[in-house]
Amino acid sequence: MTTARRGDLFDPRCPTRQLLDRVGTKWTSMAVKVLAEQAPGEVRFADLRRRMPGVSQKMLSVTLRSLARDGLVARRVEATTPPSVYYRLTDLGLSLEEPLAALRAWAERHMPEIEERNRRAADAPSDGGPGTP
Amino acid sequence: MTTARRGDLFDPRCPTRQLLDRVGTKWTSMAVKVLAEQAPGEVRFADLRRRMPGVSQKMLSVTLRSLARDGLVARRVEATTPPSVYYRLTDLGLSLEEPLAALRAWAERHMPEIEERNRRAADAPSDGGPGTP
Questions:
Q1: Predicted local distance difference test score (pLDDT) of residue B4
Q2: ipTM attached to this prediction
Q3: Which of A18, A78, A108, A123 to mutate: most B Cβ within 10 Å?
């Protein structure tokens, strides 16, 4: 990293690279959106899972653990039987929602034209164009 | 997807999910930034590689091929010996730079506090806190 106070994505030794790969995924983006909608309130694990269709229990656990380790999410366990686990965004986590929302909006807006292009490219005979190795 | 005209990240059948995972990675972010700095000009493969320290030839090829397939990057081959390959952002690719830049800025800005937190958590004895399964 160039200084002790700011990361540098273009420095191969800087952990900004790993951080970007962690926060840029679809599951992080979805979890942060659902939690941001309830902020500063909490969301139960089971509710989070229900609102992220297609996520497995394991993938959601991994995603939330990674967010908690990075200090973006706070976790609270209530000693019920079975235990109830609640998650909420920290202030740091909440600050991530704005750039993630912009990327999400870009992807949702441009997905149709990108998919249409991909479909046409896959149907077309190989012509040495951009899709060819 | 909810309509034919816009993607929906929360629909498991919608390709927005895969698109987001493709464009959210560190290598995509770096390649788009380097290309955006030269837009509308082109950048040679070797120059791109030099400006993305740590990227392997293979990883850069995979990244650029994926961007080209999605219509974010245009590729031009000049029939020299050996052939020279040039890349430039399309208008669609250029539109991705703004949200990627915001996410990059967030990661670079908050990396130091996140790493500091991770370092402390790794050094501390396990206490059933957020980092514990």
A1: 55
A2: 0.87
A3: A108
**Which amino acid would we find at residue B47?**
D
Closest CA to A54 of A22, A34, A26, A35: A26
Q: Which residues of B touch A108 (CB under 8 A)?
A: 6-9, 16
pLDDT at B123: 79
Q: Which of B76, B109, B89 is nearest to B37 (CA)?
A: B89
Can you list the domains of chain A with their CATH numbers?
Answer: 16-122 (1.10.10.10)
Q: Does the distance separating the beta carbons of A24 and B111 come in below 8 Å?
A: no
A3/B120 Cα distance (integer angstroms): 20
The single residue listed with the structure tokens 């590689």 is B49
pTM of the predicted protein model: 0.87
> What average pLDDT does the segment B78-89 reach?
94
Chain A contacts in chain B segment 33-52 (CB below 8 A): 51-52
**Residue pLDDT, tens place only, A21-60:** 999 999 999 999 999 999 999 999 999 999 999 999 999 9
Chain A residues with CB under 8 Å of B106 CB are: 23, 95-96, 99
> What's chain A's length in residues?
133
Interchain CB contacts (distance < 8 Å): A and B: 184
Note whether B113 contacts A103, CB cutoff 8 Å. no
